[in-house]
Amino acid sequence: MFPLRDHNPSGRTPYVTYGLMAANIIAFFWYSSHFPEGRALAQFYDVFAVVPVEISQGHSYGTLVTSMFVHAGLMHLAGNMLFLWIFGDNIEDEMGPITYFLFYLSCGVAAALAQVAADPLSRIPTVGASGAIAGVMGAYLLLYPKAKVDVLLILIIFFRIFSIPAVWVLGTWLALQFFGGFTTRADDGGVAYWAHAGGFVAGLLLCLPLWLKRGGPRFWARTHGHPPNPDTRYTYGESRLPKVPRRHPTQRKPGPWGK
Questions:
Q1: In this predicted model, what pLDDT tens digit does every residue of 132-145 receive, in sequence order?
Q2: Distance between CA 162 and CA 220 in Å, rounded?
Q3: Residue 164 CB partners (closer than 8 Å, separation 6+)
């Protein structure tokens, strides 16, 4: 199940969100072309990725920021940028560009520290913007729990797009991160579940002052958990696939005789 877009329009152009997306994309294609797979790429990760044991020993703190702009592959980058594009513009709209940028970086640092705390002696490098983006998702859940999000459901050969409240999309995603964190060995590599969970919780907590400034529970009572702007309405074109009428079993077309 993949989120595709939300129905929550922003009131201003999200320049910081676009800038973060551009920085991640440009950085990826730069180091992908300069550091091919193998020893060169491993050395690049050693310099710019978070290595928990190094943070635990009190050095390489700069990687807490640089690791947010490094990704392990094109699909890793694409997935993170999709989530940032869906949820980032509204949080930037609420916070303002400078506060939002500092909030984003703070969530990314908190996410990396959560991964370090989960396995402080690990030498596996941690990269990606997903921890910072998880913080954006945490703030989105706090401010707009009932905003509609379009998700694509794929079940083998069944494809369907439908809209569900953000609380179900983001709540399910967070639950999966905790499940993965408790059921996966930290030193196995793969998905940094604790970075995701840590970034999400950090984003929710850092957004609390803004939520309280808006009125806290009164803000929810006033908006009913919906965005302040009218929902975006999308129109879906009718399928161009020809429709084949179904025949009743007793109305079969006679076929040739066999011999």
A1: 999 999 999 999 99
A2: 24
A3: 148, 149, 151
